[in-house]
Amino acid sequence: MQKLSDYVQVAEAAEMLGVSQNTLRTWAADGKISVHRNPANGYRLFRRSDLEDFLRKTAESAAKKK
Fold first, then answer.
1. For 23-46, how does the pLDDT look when each residue is reduced to its tens digit (9 = 90+)?
2. Three-state SS at 61
3. How confident is the model over 7-28, as pLDDT tens digits?
4. Could you give the CA distance from residue 46 to residue 28 in angstroms, rounded to a whole number?
5. How many CB atoms lie within 10 A of CB 64?
């Protein structure tokens, strides 16, 4: 079972990734990053582990291009 502490809201997730909140929302809508909804209020939630995986894959991709 996942704990709510395993998730962050848009503002914190965007800060972790170094992008704007709108960019993160767009990526989520495009399916580039996994997004979940809080069942109580419908807010977007991002799993910390998903964000870390996204950062790692992005870094690996950038390293391959060099």
1. 999 999 999 999 999 988 999 999
2. helix
3. 999 999 999 999 999 999 999 9
4. 9
5. 7
Chain mean position to CA 6: 12
Please, what is the angle between helix 10-17 and helix 48-65, to 10°? Answer: 20
Predicted TM-score (pTM) above 0.70: yes
Q: What pLDDT does 64 receive?
A: 82
Report how far apart, in Å, the C-alpha atoms of 58 and of each of 1, 12, 38, 51, 53 are. Answer: 28, 18, 26, 10, 8
Distance of CA 8 to the CA centre of its chain: 8
- Among 63, 62, 18, 13, CA closest to 34: 13
